[in-house]
TrEMBL record:
Subcellular location per the Swiss-Prot or TrEMBL entry: Cell inner membrane
Membrane topology, from the record: Multi-pass membrane protein
Subunit structure comment from the entry: The complex comprises the extracytoplasmic solute receptor protein and the two transmembrane proteins.
Keyword vocabulary terms for this entry: Cell inner membrane, Cell membrane, Membrane, Transmembrane, Transmembrane helix, Transport
Protein name: TRAP transporter small permease protein
Top-level division of the source organism's lineage: Bacteria
Primary localization class, coarse: membrane
Residues spanning the membrane: 21-40, 52-69, 90-111
Keyword Transmembrane helix carried by entry: yes
PANTHER family registered for this protein in UniProt: 2,3-DIKETO-L-GULONATE TRAP TRANSPORTER SMALL PERMEASE PROTEIN YIAM, SLL1102 PROTEIN
Keyword Zinc-finger: no
Length: 165
């Protein structure tokens, strides 16, 4: 089972290795937009939207890796003061009763919108923008799947630790 968890980790690590370059690209594109607008008086709606697309891609596809390396936001104020066994119980509860159901609901309820967007190849957000809103909407199920996979891998580890404890 731990081999499966490592394989899932590998998926999110591979996605993150691509996404980190998209973050750099986003900064460079934004820099060019600012230079173009304020130095040369040139503006492009498509270029501005590309920053939005890159930003969404970085955050939506990078979330699984963030969960993997435990850098996600924790709301539990008592978690840090608890021992490893109590932390493990909270993590198991969080994955089984909060994270997995919420990602399942998001995947279920967003799918019709994504499917319809692909069916009509939904166009740009703004006039003159990127004609690929269907790709932007596709980030939602990709996000859910990457988070669900990583949650499953973490649960495998947590149950393995519990069995060994």
């Amino acid at each position: 089972m731990l081999g499966l968890a490592k394989a899932i980790d590998g998926i999110n690590r591979a996605v993150a290795s691509v996404v980190k370059w998209l973050a750099l690209l986003m900064v460079l594109v934004q820099f060019c937009i600012v230079i173009g607008r304020y130095v040369f008086g040139v503006n492009s709606i498509a270029a501005q939207e590309s920053v939005l697309y890159l930003h969404a891609t970085v955050f939506m596809l990078g979330a699984g890796y963030t969960l993997l390396v435990d850098k996600h936001v924790r709301v539990d104020v008592f978690y840090a003061r608890l021992g490893p066994a109590a932390q493990r119980r909270i993590d198991i509860f969080g994955h089984l009763f909060l994270l997995i159901p919420s990602m399942g609901a998001l995947l279920y309820w967003s799918w019709p919108s994504v499917r319809n967007s692909w069916k009509i190849l939904e166009g740009p957000i703004s006039v003159g923008g990127i004609e690929a809103v269907f790709l932007l909407k596709s980030l939602i199920p990709a996000f859910c799947i990457l988070i669900l996979l990583q949650s499953f891998a973490l649960l495998l580890r947590l149950f393995s630790e519990r069995a060994n404890a």
